[in-house]
Design brief:
Enzyme class: transferase
Function: Is probably a protein kinase regulator of UbiI activity which is involved in aerobic coenzyme Q (ubiquinone) biosynthesis.
Largest sheet: 5 strands, antiparallel
Number of helices: 21
Distance between the termini: 66 Å
Structural class: alpha+beta
Shape: elongated
Family: Belongs to the protein kinase superfamily. ADCK protein kinase family.
Pfam families: ABC1
Pathway: Cofactor biosynthesis; ubiquinone biosynthesis [regulation]
Length: about 550
Amino acid sequence: MRTRRFYKITKTLLTYGLDDLIPARWLPWTIRLGRHALFWMPNKHKDKPAGVRLRLALEQLGPVWVKFGQMLSTRRDLLPPDIAIELARLQDKVPPFNGEAAQKIIEKSLNLNSIDDCFIDFDTTPLASASIAQVHTAQLKQADDIVDVVIKVIRPDIRETIHADLELMETLASVAARHLPDGRRLKPKEVVKEYRKTLLDELDLLREAGNAIQLKRNFENSDMLYIPVVYSDYSRHNVMVMERIDGIPVSDVDTLRARGVDMKKLAERGVEVFFTQVFRDSFFHADMHPGNIFVAKDDPLHPRYIGIDFGIVGTLNRDDKRYLAENFLAFFNRDYRKVAELHVDSGWVPRHTNIEEFESAIRTVCEPIFEKPLAEISFGHVLINLFNTARRFEMEVQPQLVLLQKTLLYIEGLGRQLYPELDLWKTAKPFLERWMNEQLGWRAVVRSVKENAPYWAEKMPEIPNMIYDSLRQYQTQPKQNDYRWQALLRAQKQASTLTFWTVLSASGLICTTLLWTDTELSAPTIGSGIITILLAVMAWRSRPKTSNGEFN
């Protein structure tokens, strides 16, 4: 099976002429010879641009490769812009699998005799179908209520397909890393490894359920974002039951306008939701493309987002958040020196980086951008330019920043689709300044005291004993030091004595050997031997002793 799959992938790549994307001079003669040998697989799409050919090939290869292309489309630091834009058009269109098979999976996973034990009106026709899973509607029987739900079901046998394709991807990545001159910068093996983790995480619906519950808790009672209820008692690794939402797809701009939705507020709230997730919660939805976002119908003048599909999330630690916020603010103020220093301080670029050269490189890239009105500047593309510049100064790939960059591009594109005049800089700057003040000002001190007060209260009763032990140790310290000093002197004296007797016994041995060689066995030779033995005994007795009196 693996051989057939490898043959199909090879044929697809070659018939779309993707081998032309790699200059022949970069390839070893064995691979060039192999390409000529496969003469029955010619490029059948010579009239199409490279990006289009790549997109069509990935769509033909199936869902694993489509998702891989979607991920690559966010890596503008690795791909030419035209190819990245084309990959962003990849559609996750997969025919649904049999609804009765989905029902059997649900019954088996939840240990039900029949789907009717828990659900009413289960619809075998899926509401939506994607490469990893599909969704069915139903009503869940609760103790005192019946609620509308959707049931997400992982495709049967998808794991075997994914693992097989991932192994082939890793093989191709190893070949690319070995033979392509730019293989070190492109890091194909690292990219595939990152993709493997992301894809396998999406296969675990319990993980997705946990992510949804966390996001819902973070935005409890929020008027900006609503996260549907997840019924974790009815969720398993391959099945997830979630509240069915009633919203307008955020991409349906005409319907939103027809309902009188305040598009400016909707766009600005999208930006605020993103920065709140990143800087307040350090936990953000990292797959916020238009297909996963809806708008609630209840209040058009104060619109609220509804999020779904939580398989991919990103996290930032405290240091990353602070450095990122300071970077953004430094960019707002065109303080490129500060940007360069922050990259070094954070460890994103090596310590030996020349700050002046790095600052100059950042200025060269960013100053032309700032010649435009702020409302026309893409925040996401500024971030991409920053990372591309930093990469020339040995900046390693930061997975958490790649997810952040991808999400920011989604949010900015969505915001400007809703409200073309959106000034993301103007919207984001007050939020970042407020957050920084909370992190560094007196509020940060108060919050730190509140956070640590329970720990301090727990340790308070131990403080008197700790002070007493410290004072007692301080009092006995001189005696302990004197004892150690005396022990050191004794050890040195013993070592000197051992060396003295060892040298004498070695000299006696040499003399005895010379006398034995020059003369027959005589009284001087015998006497010298006896003296040598006595000296050796003295050397042996002068060996250092352990504390229990035995020799070492």
